[in-house]
Amino acid sequence: CANGPCRISPKVPRGACGVDAHVMVARNFVYRHVTIGTAANIFHAQQAARTLKAAAEKPDSGLKIRDKDKLLKYAEMAGLNSHEDINKVAVNFANWILADMGKPYWEESALAQAFAPPRRQELWRKLGLFPGGGFSEVGFAQTKCMTNLNADPVDFLLTSVRLGIINEYQGLFALDILQEILMGTQKIRTAKQNMGLLKKDMVNIVTNGHMPLTAHIVIELASTLEWQEKAKKAGASGMQVLGHVCEGQQLLNYKDTGEMSAFGGQEGEWLSEEYLFATGAVDLFMFDYNCTIPTLPLYAKRFGTRMVSTHEVIRMPGTEVVEFKPKEMKKQAEKILDMAIEAFAKRKAENREVYIPPHVSEGCMIGFSTESVKEALGGTWKPLIDAIAAGKIRGIATIVGCTTARYGQGGSNIFRITKGLIEKDILVLSGGCTSSVMQYTGLTNPKAAEECGSGLKEVCKALGIPPVLSYGACVDIGKMTQTAKELADALDVDTNKLPLVIGAPEYLEQKAVADACTAIALGWLVHVAPVPSVTGSDVVVKVLTETTETLGLGKLTVETSADKTVQIYVDHIEKKRKELGLH
Q: What is the per-residue burial (b if ≥16 Cβ within 10 Å, else e) of 145-158?
């Protein structure tokens, strides 16, 4: 507030208004991290819902309903009539989601009621944590954070868990359903990744961010003979679109996009953005919702890349805009392709220097999701459960989120932790920039089975899969929670009983903290590194690392050492195995 900033110490333990360190830390945790992350994920799902509605109301707008079965399944689960015209079902489903997001915080979320595990719902009601409409929940939580309002650190932390619930069901989970309806549910296959996929003689478009709605249409149009011929008339051998960061992982994994001829593959994680521009080969860089770093316009000017924002939520100085309009997505995509061809023609006319690193990560197995994994197992979870019961797979760890340069090269801690886990027969699921790390280090190649412990090695070889199953982007954590829910249902236990650990060993921003609160709400141990801003209060640390577990929720652990992290995961998984009666 205007009286601050306050500096407190053992000698002066309270700020100007009287709050102590515990309130300051807990309030900042909710306000600066969890509300922002939750709002961002719900905002993303809102954009997908309005796009589904546009695709149904105006089929010539660009996007199509590609997974009709998924739409009908979830519409039915939502209590909607699934026997009407498919476009009407789509509009009703989109409206149902949008209406739920707009509910007041005191009315229970219909999405959480329909899709959250029933045992968890009972616990959340008992603890007063069952959320209402997501945007109202964010407003409710932020109001608590105002000066001279809430001064109870425990209430703040329970508020963060409540936000974690709605972050999942009106954010990640809703988003994953919507985008798969529009772009095709994952299909297990192999693909390529890394900078060597850029081609000097082609029009190279890189799409960056987390919201691949416009990009999907750009790829579809670029795959047509008409647009390939336009590129050739400009002097190129053709045109390709490559994904970057989580957007690239989503496009790589979505069945229909991944099979489009103009999709060139996935480039890398967020720390490589400046290197991409420095190749001189990127003609157009289209960017949307998050992970476009503020230095890029400087690199664009230096290396001749044309930068285009495709959503009103992000603006960069000195860059261009093609606005996100779901009912006009085809027209918007055409503008972007024309701009890319113009940029290539300029690069060619100026004979600019191009250097493309030659490395390509081959044989990356991708396309894992709840549906595709279950299908690969013969339509039942029994083979996986049997492997866990027999001890061939000790448990599951999800390694998700961002990368950081704090530990050396970005992804180095992720790699060391993952290697340590698979050697201990722990199956790993990846999502986010961690998926890029897994791909360029070879851990998503089935050959990586040789690097596993004997039990996991046997399972991987028998199924022809790698020890790391890439679920795609950070937002695809919603698919991982669905997989966990179905495993818990198959075992007839609550989700907190599973031998499962959630890890974000190199997290960067606020969405990761909101996602950690989702994991705590679902009853799981969640590990984050670097250490989040909670250590200024021993009360906050104790609540998040101990007390929440006594309430039937999950808990937080922080550790920066890769070796110690592996042991924490192993110990927790073995503890959960013992509770289930497994040896």
A: beeeebbebeebbb
Cis bond before residue 5 (omega within 30° of 0): yes
Angle, to 10 degrees, between the axis of helix 35-57 and the axis of helix 153-166?
20
Token pair 């420095």 in the structure block, residue: 278
Distance (Å, rounded) from C-alpha 492 to C-alpha 490?
5
Q: Which of 496, 474, 469, 467 is nearest to 484 (CA)?
A: 496
Alpha helices in 78-133 (DSSP H): 86-101, 110-115, 118-126
CA 442 – CA 459 distance, rounded (Å): 18
- Which residue, among 1, 2, 6, 138, has the nearest Cα to 536 in the 3D structure? 6
Q: Helices 510-521 and 153-166: crossing angle, nearest 10°?
A: 90
Give residue-wise pLDDT tens across range 520-543: 999 999 999 999 889 999 999 999
Pick from 107, 112, 111, 114: which is nearest to 95 by CA?
A: 111
Distance between CA atoms of residues 117 and 381, nearest Å: 17
DSSP type of residue 319: -
Overall residue count recorded for the chain in this entry: 583
For 210, the token pair is 């987390």
Closest CA to 253 of 180, 323, 204, 195: 180
What distance in Å separates the CA atoms of residue 245 and residue 220, rounded to the nearest whole number? Answer: 20
**The pLDDT of residue 4 is above 90:** no
Q: In 58-212, which residue ranges form alpha helices assigned H by DSSP?
A: 68-77, 86-101, 110-115, 118-126, 134-144, 153-166, 173-183
The dihedrals phi and psi of 199, each to the nearest 5 degrees, come to -125, 125
pLDDT value, residue 257: 86
Average pLDDT over residues 236-263: 94
pLDDT digits (tens, 9 = 90+) for 209-233: 999 999 999 999 999 999 999 999 9
Say what the pLDDT of residue 390 is.
97
* Distance from C-alpha of 517 to C-alpha of 33, rounded to nearest angstrom: 10
Rounded Cα–Cα distance for residues 54 and 62 (Å): 9
Side-chain-side CA neighbours of residue 397 (13 Å):
33
